[in-house]
Specification:
By secondary structure, the chain is an alpha/beta fold. It has 2 domains: about 160 residues, Chitobiase, domain 2, CATH 3.30.379; about 300 residues, TIM Barrel (Alpha-Beta Barrel). It contains 16 helices and 19 strands. The protein has an 8-stranded parallel β-barrel, surrounded by 7 helices. Strands 1-9-6-7-5-3-4 form a 7-stranded mixed sheet. A two-stranded antiparallel sheet has the order 2-8. α2 packs parallel to α3, α4 runs parallel beside α6 and α8 packs parallel to α9. The structure holds ligand TNX. Ligand TNX binds next to loops. Keywords: Glycosidase, Hydrolase.
C-alpha cells in the first residue's frame, strides 16, 4: 500500500520526463507489420474532423471521445463520403486492402508462417515477399490497416472490431498527454507511415475474480477499458466461489441475496442484478470485448450451499466462508436437484450473455471422487450445450468426455500434461493461462504487498517469456485458441490494486496473444512498454514500477 501511494505521489509530482515523440513501432501489442515514413508525420489540429462509414460510426465516436478531453478540440464525426471533410478517416472495406506499398517483411520467410512481419520497424526492406497463398491481404475479423501521412490518418478494416483496434493504435501513437482528462498544450503529432496488423490468436482475455472480493459495475467497466487498450477481446468473470455468489438468478433468488452477502475477510460482498450484468456486457460489447461468465462447479460452491442447503451433500447449510482455502466444498453430484439447479443457473446466465461461451469452472473439486466428477462434468457440459453455448472450463475437465467445441483453460505450471494433451487429441482447444507466467495474482517480487507466490514470483519478463503456441507438450499451435491472464482476488480489494497487479503484466500477456511470434523480443518489448508508464500515470492508472523496465 505504501508503494502504491508513493507511485501515485511521484507521478502526481510530475517527476516523469517530458514525452519523447512517439515512434511508429512503439505500439503495444507489437503490430504485425510496421513501415515508418519519417516524412509523413501528421499533426492533429483544432479544425480536424473524423469521417467514417455509417457502420463504423460508433468506433469513430469512441475515438473522438478519447481525443477530445486532452486536445480540447471539437473533433466532430461526420458520415460524409467527401474526403475533404475529415482528416481522420475510418473506412470499412470488404477486402481490407492490407498490402502496404512497401512490404516490411523479411524476404525468405517460410511460406505458411509468412503472415508475420518479423522485421522490426527501421529494418524495413522493400521487395515482394508475398507467399502467394492469397491470404496476405485479408485483415480478417479483427485486423486493420493504418496509414499516417502529412495529409491525414486513415484506418481501414473489414469489421468495426478491426477499426476499434486501429483506433486504439492511433491513441497510442499520439503523445502520452492524450491521456489527460483536461486540455493540455501539446503538439499532437503522430509518426508517419503504415501499420498492417491482425491478431495471432482469436481469444485474448483477462479474468477478474469478483467472488473472493466483490467489484462493482464501475470498477468492472474500467477493467474493460484496460483490456480494450491492449486489444484483449474477452473478459472472463469468475462470478461464483466459496466466498460469494455474484449474479442474480431469478429461479434461485437466495444464491445472490444470501450467497452474495459475504467475501474474503468478512466484508459486505455484493452481487450484480440482471441489469448490472447487462450493463457490463453491453459496455464490453461496444469495446469489442466478449464477456465469459463462469459458474464454478461442482467445487468452489460454499456460498451456494449456504443459500440452498439442499444442494449440499449432507443437506445441511455450512457456515459462510470468508477465508482463502480451496477445495473443501461441492454440490451433491448424487442428487437430481443439483442438476435442476445447474440447468436453471446456466440457462439464466446464458440468456443474459450474448457471447458464445459459458465457463463451468471445474477446478479443485478435491472432495469429489474421480468417477462422479467425470459423470457430473459430462452432464454439466450437456446442460451448457442445451443453452446453445460452448463449454469452457479449467483443465481439470480434461478427463471427462469430450463435448463439441469445448475449450479447456490450462493453468498448469509444467507444460508436460498428458491429460490435457489427450483431451486436445479428442478435440478440445486450449486457452493458455500458465500459473507461473500469466497469473496476475502472483507477486512481482518478494516485497509485493499483495498477491500469492504458489506459482512463483512473476515480474514482467517472466510474464512475457513464453510461447502460447508451443507451451504445452503435444498441443499444436492450431489447438490453441488463445491466452488469458487471470486475476484472483483473495488479497486484491480495490480497483487500484487490480491495476497494480495488471500493469505492466497485462500488456505482456496481451502481446503474446496478439503479436506474431516473429516480433517477440524482450529488449524491444521492455522499451515499448516503458513508454506506457507516462500514459498510465496521466490516465490515473496505478502500476508496478518494475525495475525490469527502463521507465523514462
Ligand atoms: C487456484 S487457478 C485456483 C483459485 C485460487 C488461485 C489462487 C484455479 C483454477 N483455481 O481458486 O484463487 O489458485 O492463485
Amino acid at each position: 500500500a505504501a508503494e502504491l501511494a508513493r507511485v501515485a505521489a511521484d507521478r502526481a509530482a510530475g517527476q516523469l520526463a517530458p514525452p519523447a515523440p512517439v515512434r511508429l513501432d512503439a505500439v503495444v501489442p507489437a503490430p504485425e507489420r510496421v513501415l515508418p515514413d519519417p516524412g509523413g508525420d501528421f499533426t492533429l489540429t483544432p479544425d480536424a474532423a473524423l469521417r467514417v462509414d455509417p457502420a463504423g460510426r460508433d468506433v469513430a465516436d469512441q475515438l473522438a471521445g478519447w481525443l477530445r478531453p486532452a486536445t480540447g478540440f471539437p473533433l466532430p464525426v461526420t458520415e460524409t463520403a467527401d474526403p475533404a471533410e475529415g482528416r481522420l478517416t475510418l473506412t470499412l472495406s470488404p477486402t481490407g486492402a492490407a498490402t502496404p506499398t512497401h512490404d516490411t517483411r523479411a524476404a525468405g520467410t517460410p511460406a505458411g508462417e509468412a503472415r508475420a512481419a518479423g522485421t522490426p520497424a527501421g529494418d524495413a526492406q522493400d521487395g515482394d515477399a508475398r507467399d502467394g497463398d492469397g491470404d496476405d491481404d485479408a485483415l480478417g475479423d479483427e485486423g486493420y490497416r493504418l496509414d499516417v501521412t502529412t495529409a491525414g490518418v486513415r484506418i481501414t478494416a473489414t469489421t468495426p472490431a478491426g477499426l476499434f483496434h486501429g483506433a486504439q493504435t492511433v491513441r497510442q501513437l499520439l503523445p502520452a498527454a492524450v491521456e489527460s482528462t483536461t486540455p493540455v498544450a501539446e503538439r499532437w503529432v503522430m509518426p508517419g507511415g503504415t501499420i498492417v496488423d491482425r491478431p495471432r490468436f482469436p481469444y485474448r482475455g483477462a479474468m477478474l475474480d469478483v467472488a473472493r472480493h466483490f467489484f462493482g459495475v464501475r470498477d468492472v467497466l474500467r477493467v474493460v477499458d484496460h483490456l480494450a487498450r491492449y486489444k484483449l477481446n474477452h473478459l472472463h468473470l469468475h462470478l461464483t466461489d466459496d466466498q460469494g455468489w455474484r449474479i442474480a438468478v431469478d429461479s434461485w433468488p437466495r444464491l445472490a441475496e444470501v450467497g452474495g452477502a459475504t467475501e474474503v475477510g468478512g466484508g459486505p460482498g455484493g452481487w450484480y442484478t440482471r441489469d448490472d450484468y447487462r450493463r457490463i456486457v453491453a459496455y464490453a460489447a461496444r469495446r469489442h470485448v466478449t464477456v465469459v461468465p463462469e459458474i464454478d462447479l461442482p467445487g468452489h460452491t460454499n456460498a451456494a450451499l449456504v443459500a440452498y442447503p439442499e444442494l449440499a451433500p449432507g443437506k445441511t447449510a455450512p457456515p459462510p466462508y470468508t477465508g482463502t482455502e480451496v477445495g473443501f466444498s461441492y454440490v451433491d453430484p448424487a442428487d437430481e436437484r443439483t442438476y435442476a439447479f445447474v440447468a436453471d443457473v446456466l440457462g439464466e446466465v446464458a440468456a443474459l450473455t450474448p457471447g458464445p461461451w459459458l465457463h463451468l469452472g471445474g477446478d479443485e473439486a478435491f472432495k469429489v471422487p474421480a468417477e462422479s466428477y467425470r459423470a457430473f462434468v459430462a452432464r454439466a457440459q450437456a446442460l451448457v450445450a442445451a443453452t446453445g453455448k460452448t463449454v469452457v472450463g479449467w483443465h481439470q475437465l480434461a478427463p471427462a468426455e469430450h463435448a463439441a467445441g469445448r475449450v479447456l483453460q490450462w493453468w498448469g505450471t509444467n507444460g508436460d500434461d498428458p491429460d490435457t494433451a489427450e483431451a486436445v487429441r479428442r478435440g478440445a482447444r486450449l486457452i493458455l493461462s500458465p500459473g507461473n507466467h500469466a497469473y496476475l495474482d502472483m507477486k512481482y517480487a518478494p516485497d509485493t504487498p499483495i498477491g500469492h507466490d504458489w506459482a512463483g514470483l512473476i515480474d514482467v519478463r517472466r510474464a512475457y517469456e513464453w510461447d502460447p503456441g508451443t507451451h504445452v507438450r503435444g498441443v499444436p499451435a492450431e489447438a490453441v485458441l488463445g491466452v488469458e491472464a487471470p486475476l484472483w482476488t483473495e488479497s486484491v480489494t480495490t480497483l487500484a490494486e487490480v491495476e497494480y497487479m495488471f500493469f505492466p503484466r497485462l500488456p505482456a500477456v496481451a502481446e503474446l496473444g496478439w503479436s506474431p511470434r516473429e516480433t517477440h523480443d524482450w529488449s524491444r518489448f521492455r522499451s515499448r512498454v516503458a513508454a506506457h508508464g507516462p500514459r498510465w500515470a496521466t490516465a490515473g492508472i496505478t502500476f508496478h514500477p518494475s525495475p525490469e523496465i527502463p521507465w523514462p
